[in-house]
Structures are given as structure tokens and as C-alpha cells.
Amino acid sequence: MLDRRQVLAMLGTTALATLAPTALLAAASIKPDDASALLVIDVQNCFLPGGSLAVKEGEQVVPVINKISKAFANVVMTQDWHTPGHISFASVHSGKKPFETVDLPYGKQVLWPDHCVQGTDGASLSRDLAIPHAELIIRKGFHKDVDSYSAFLEADGKTSTGLAGYLRGRKIKRVFVAGLATDFCVAWTALDARKAGFEVYVVEDACRGIDTQGSLAKAWADMAKAGVKRIQSADIAVSA
Predict the structure, then answer these.
(1) Residue 58 backbone dihedrals phi, psi, to 5 degrees
(2) pTM for the complete prediction?
(3) Architecture of the domain defined by 36-83+115-234
(4) Does residue 140 have an active-site annotation?
(5) Is 116 an active-site residue?
């Protein structure tokens, strides 16, 4: 992404309006309003250091999310909430290892280590999250035979979590997505939010990725193509 000073030097201020929206965002702080919501995706112990599916540097998103959450009147958090023996676990597929794939009725499924099993400490949200005003927790992936990365739809692409209806009922028009992991649950949430008609921002430094077989680059490319805006936490105006 071009640095703003480089843009000005090369093109001049009159040409700035022709740049992509993601470049323009750096020019001014974004002030979330009552029609904005922060979606905090799967900041759970299994995805943090020591967890069964730890995301590299995953713990670093917590203070960033805590900070930006203060700018939002509306915050929703999500939890992976799998049954024992969930279809997405490599342990239930004979001869398969984590990060290999299988074909399931709803499409290709990445196989994971057992993680975020209902009622376990690994499924709990990080104790370091400090968002007391969060209004809703969406639990997903609790159907044994279908995975659910997105906060909006399960992996079959048709079973709804109810989040879109909730947000519409609250008159939310734009959502900001943060959490774990960038290339899976964050990206799928952002893409489904766009399909549902919301304006969508992903806060890059409030996310971390797994990046298996090029998944991180693909996720960012897919999100850009769908019109998801890529921003940094510093772009969000947070009151002291």
C-alpha cells in the first residue's frame, strides 16, 4: 500500500481522489457512529499461545482490540464452539493430519487439531479481553457435521447464525472486523458481511493469520475484490 506522503509527492493532491478507497482511508480518522459495530472474532484460548491451534502472535491482537473497542457503542464477539469429534477435526478422519483437506458435502474442508470444544477452557474467550460493553456473543461451529468460520453463515453457505438479522435490527450499516485468524474466520466473516450488504473494514493490526498453503495472501485478495476495506487501528478515532 502506498504511503500517503509518497502519493502526494508522485501525483499531487489533485490526483488523490483517483486512488483506491483503501489508500484514502489513511488521510483521516474513522469515527464509528451508532450505525457501526465492531466484530471481535474468536479471541479464544485455543488460538492463543499454548493453545491447541495457536495463531502466531495471536496474543498481540488483544490490547489492540481492547483499545479500539472503546470507540464503538456496538460490539459483538464470536466463539468457535465445536462438539467433541467435530467433522473439522483431523482426529476423526482416519489417516489424515492437521492442515490436510478432505471433500465434504458442502465443499473442501481444512482439517484442524481438536480445538474450542464446548465447555473447555480452550473454548473460553481470552481473560485479557476487556470489553464489558459487548452486547452479544455468537457461538458457531456447534453443528457436528459442518464447520463455521464465518460469524454470519456456516460453511455450507446457507445456514445462518442470525447475526445479519441482529445487526439489521440494530440499524447497523458498517462493520469493523478484528480477531483470529485473518485468513479464515476473519476473512469469511468479512466476505459474508459484504454479501449481506454491510460496509466492511478489516483492522489489519488487530488480526493475525495462520497462513497455510498461501491462505493469507488469498484471503486479502478475496477481501479486496469484494470491496472490504483494509485499515489499521490508528485509522480509528478513539477517545482518550
Answers:
(1) -60, -35
(2) 0.87
(3) 3-Layer(aba) Sandwich (3.40)
(4) yes
(5) no
